[in-house]
Amino acid sequence: MSERIPAAPPPGPDVGMLVYCDHLENCSWSEPDAQNRISIISYRYCYPTISGVGIVGSLLLLLVLRDARFGGAGVYTYLRCLMLSDSAALTMAGATFLAETWQTYVDCDGRRLQPRSRAEAIWRIVFVPFANAMVGFSMGVTLWMTYDRYQAVRVPHELWRQRRPERRCGGRPLRIAATLFVSLALHMPQTLGYHVVEHCPVEGDTFYAVSLIHGAASGWVWPFYQWALQVLVRWLPAAVVLYCNSYIIVAIKRRERRVQAIANTMSQQCTESVTRRPRGESSASSCSGVSLVGVCELPRPPAPPPSPLPQRPPSASVDSARRQRQRRQEAEHRMEFLLAATAASYLVSNCLQSALCILELVYEQRDLGFQVNININLPIKYV
Q1: Contact status, residue 266 vs residue 290, Cβ threshold 8 Å
Q2: CATH pick for 18-244+350-368 out of 1.20.1560.10, 2.60.40.3500, 1.20.1070.10, 3.10.50.40
Q3: Model's pTM, two decimal places?
């Protein structure tokens, strides 16, 4: 095998710098194996579908929550941010992964590589942390939205009337900005683990690939950082969201049963009070039904003389107020269940994406003797 003089002096250990090849390699083009087929299925079909479902769900919620009564809940702010982050993740990660799944692989001296141009390799190093940061940002916004709803359920009517200023955690724009900053700060160190390597095959044009640096492939800091990032950014918020949503659903069901029990009790008392009176009094009294809080009309004093202006019957006013309260409570419960469904969809999507990241970590850690539960050793994957 003939030697080649480097086109430029090898750079220092700076991460992301180009490492020039110093010899020719025996490379052969091959079809994707089973491991890469799993990656193809995940990134060609699953990832764009998951992000698309999140965007569609946010659009539907924005259409449902058009009523001005929902303005105090702040869901518009959260949903807009979720749509922006999902759109960014879908546009960057979905399109990039979709394009990469159509590329072939090259076996060079026992290593499986995915050939790229220099710009594609640099973009691969930059966009992966940014896309992961957008996913983490979506999870953080979902956590804040769930927290607000959790507090609103614990304190009745706070969802509709924000009487107290948000002193504990700052305003919603401040929360969102802080969440974005923290997510970017946690994910940007991912760029430190990869660098661009030039490969010079015996036959064919020179191509570039992205690989783990030696320190990341052989040390314990890199895998520890990756696992800690998954737990901190995805699994811990997912657990909090799951608990809050469960509490919200149980509280709504309990409230509905309590209101229904009060209404039934008041209706029964109203009926008994009417049947126990003498016949003469019962004709003068009226029981107009029970609202959500129980309203039973007792005998009233003689009505004033009729006025020239038309007046609305008292029973009609009570029925109108009852229907208004009922519609408002139904809208509140419908919104809570819709937001719980949205949070659950983000929970599932983040768990699936986290599973993909875990598989990537498994592929990269063969030198550390890392194994999955089914005890399959997987080779180092050059991305």
Answers
A1: yes
A2: 1.20.1070.10
A3: 0.63
